[in-house]
Structures are given as C-alpha cells and as structure tokens.
Fold:
Amino acid sequence: MNYARLPQTSAQIALPAWRARTLFFLLLLGMVTLMARAFYLQGMHTDFLQQKGDARYSRVVEVPAHRGMITDRNGEPLAISTPVDSVWASPSDVVAGAAQLRQLAQLLDTTAGHLRERLADTSREFVYLQRQLPPDQARRVAALGIPGVSLQHEYRRYYPGGEVTAHLLGFTDMDDNGREGVELALHDVLRGKPGSQRVLKDRRGHIVEDVASLRAPKEGRDVALSIDSKLQFIAFREIKRAVIEHAAKAGSIVVLDAKSGEVLALANWPAFNPNNRTRPASGAMRNRAVTDLFEPGSTMKPFAVAAVLEEGKFKPESRVDTGNGTLTLSNRTIHDTHPAAFMSVSEVLQKSSNVGAARLALSLSPQVFWNHLRQSGFGDETGCGFPGEASGKLRSYQNWRPIEQATISYGHGISVNLLQLARAYTVFANDGELKPISLLKQETPARGSPVYSAQTARAVRAMLERVVLPGGTAPLAQVPGYRVAGKTGTAHKLQNGKYVNRYIASFVGMAPASDPRLIVAVMLDEPGGKEYYGGQVAAPVFASVTGAALQTLDVPYDAPLDNVMPDLGPVVGEET
Structure:
C-alpha cells in the first residue's frame, strides 16, 4: 500500500523582540535592587542587622561590683561579701522534660509546679528562679545542662559577728543594697559601681564567648569603724545576760572612748541574726540605743549641779534645803526616796535627791538652765550619722512653768536616746568639753566644744565618785583596781500621759575617774521582779563591762586591787 507523504510543520514560534528585552531588564533591575539593598544594609545601615543578630545571640550582662568590707578599728572583718550564683532563665529558650524540672526543683528547694509558673510567660527574656546559691549547689544546677537556664555571678553579704553586731551594722538586701544600720548609712561608699560586658550565647542560652568589656566594675571602698570587736562582744554578752536575768523588756549599752568620742561598742537585746534572710520582728531589729527615746531620770541631776556650779550659785559643800523630802509646786509635790531636811550639793547627787536637784535648778533662770542643757547636747542629734537617730526632746524654756523646770532637773519632761546621754557625760570626762560622736575610726581625736569650765567638770566628777561608794546609789558599779564615777537613774515610764509603776533603769559612768578613758551607759527597759533600781540592775552591768574593757585595753590601775568593799550594804534606792 502506498501512503502519501505528509507535509512537515515547524515547531518554532517567532516571539516579539520587545518581550525578551523586557524580561532581561526586569531581571537586571531586580539584581541591581538586591545589590543596592545589600550595600545599604551592610555598608551604610548596619544597625538593623546587628540589632536582630544581637537579639538572638548577643547579650549585655551586668558585672557586679564587690561591696567594700566593714572592719573594726583593729582590722577585724565585721561584714564581708562572698561570691554566690543566682539561677535565671529565658522562658522562651527553656527546653526541659518533666524529669529535669523535678531535678532542678529539688536543687532549688522548690516544686516543679512553681518552676512551671515562673517559666509560663514566654514573652519575658529574664526571670530569676533562685537567688544567691552557694557555689557547690550552683555547680550542680549547671551540670543539669538545661537549655535556657543560666547562672549569674553575684555577691552575698556575710556578718561574722552575727547578732553581736547586728544592730550596728544592719544588713543588705538581695541586690546588695544597704537597708539598715551602717550598711545603709555608708551605702554610697561601700557599694561601688557595677560594670557591664557583652557576651555571645548559643541557641540554648549558654554563654559561649565574652565579646567585650563595656565598663569595668568599680569596687566599693573598705570602711574601718570605731568599734572594738572584743569590747563589742563583752558589751553584748553582759546586756543580754542582764535583760534575761531581770526579765526586762529590752536593754541597751554604749561604750565610748572618753577622749575621742569614738563608739567602741554598742549593743542591744533582743537582737537578730543578719545572716538569716528571714525578716525578724521589727522590735528585734530596732537599734534602741540610737532610735528609742526615754526619760533619763536621775542621770540628769549632774547637769543641774554643773549648771549651778558654773553660774556660781552653789559650791559642792553648800547646803541645800531639801524640805524633809517634799517640795510642792503648782499643786504637785516632789518626793525623795530618802528624806532629809538639808543636804550638801554633793549629797544631792550621792543620795539622788529629787527635791535637792529641783531646788538647784530653780535657782537659775529658765533660759540659763536651758542653755546649759542645750550646750550639753540635749534636744539635738549626736551627729553620728546613724539612720533613724532620734534627736530627743527639750522644750523651749519660754514654755516652762516652775514645776517643769524642776522636773527636768531629775530627768522628767525631757527625753534622750542612750547614745546622746553617753555623749553628754563627755563634758565631765574631758574637763568641760563636749566631744563629737563618731562610728568611724579616727586617726586623731576630734576637737570638742567647751560647755563648762575645767573646775566645774572636775568638781562634778568628784561628786560622781561618791555615788558609787557605800551610802550612794551605785556601790555595785565599783571596779577592782579602778576609781569609778557615775550616776544612776530609775525613772517611772510615761503611759497615756500618766506615770506608771514601770521603770527605765539606767547607769552612766566613767573610769578611771582620775583620768577617764571610757564612758559606759547602760539602760534596761521595764526590769521585772523585785529589783528595778538603776543601782541594782544597770550598775552591775557597767562594772562587768568596764572592768573587762579596761583590762582588754591595758589601762593602768588608779586604785588598789582590793578597793571594792566586800560588804557594801543595801543599795540606796531612788525613784524619779
């Protein structure tokens, strides 16, 4: 069979030339646009890419500064910073199974449910899981290798003295900021300035490289306090013992260097342990020696005596009409515990006569008496710089009535803190010069301000020696081998505007009386039981602390070692 040959057709289709040129132009334009964009981003505007890259892999982390150390006057550490680690996480990066979360929770002393709550918000880039772990515990956390969980190096404050120095030093919070005491007062000096560092992290949130140190941390400065650690321990031990023994509500003690005004010891009971992060009761945290005010009672009488001696109104041997123990002013009667018709000025102090002190004060004009008290530091802060220091209250003489002027002479109608009262006694220890108070170690003694003449100050100091002898109110304040001068106080407490049968028992004294080196002030708030006179409960604390302190400081004796009489007889009581 013959088949006819079919004609062949061409598959090529002719396209218009303009379409090819258009396609080429579009491709060329796209390539130029991409090149221009790449040049713009990489050469002229790199911030965008850098920002995106940094957001994924780069972090700026804070480098904590080492907080300055606090030492006592002899270089013994009172507060130091120890390295710790805090555990933090980036919730969006955390990849952990149920078993790993349980392990992590066990190491952090929490529950897996609590960790899940902390990690639930994935929009957050940083969340703490646990603060300030010990290094060995932190290493076990890191060994789990959980993506998104990291460690941050920090410092935690440690106080070797614990409750012994708690009220003085205060404490810091989790972020190493001072919150109480010296830690707060000197925070700007101690804290330093944190630095910063840029680091690279992998997809699991682990730091893989330190890129650059943006700012080096500036370490805090060390601070040397005026405190002597040995004396601080002695003072704390004795005030704690006295509060417990006499069932008192609280107690405070201050030990001053009589020559420089430096605080050598300051303690309170009840106390707290600043190393325990559990917040104690506010009553235990209060530095009562500085922040609490009380009526000083008969410890004010030496200032009434000093004022009249300075003004030439009386001499130590001058006779004072004590009215058989009563004096009535404005329908109010002042009483003496041990009435007598007349007493010498010296006996007014020795027997702690309220009537005698009132007679002395009333012999002066209100302005003159007020000026002497004001110049002795009453009604004003001590200048120690302690946070929350109470300034005390001394009403203007323009508002005084005679009865008020009389009661101020024996410590009613005026309020002080214990440090302020101890400072006032520096006028008797330094020949009439009031010393400034310092919590910092002083290389050279600071100059004080003159208040009384040397003759007046020495005369009062001699009278105060009689207070601690048999027949005075404080024979229990005697110290073997040293002459002692001081004054007791037993003041009724003011409650709801009325004086009640609750007491503030106190004693302020100095030794050696021939050339005072130490001033020790003791206060017990509401001693219970049968003994509540200052001479019974506060004077023995003074004797124990002063005797041990003088021995520790190697102060020469100024009396025979057997100067303390074994049979002192009953303590002469007083109430104001």
Q: What stands out?
A: The chain is about 35% helix and 20% strand. The longest strand covers residues 498-511.
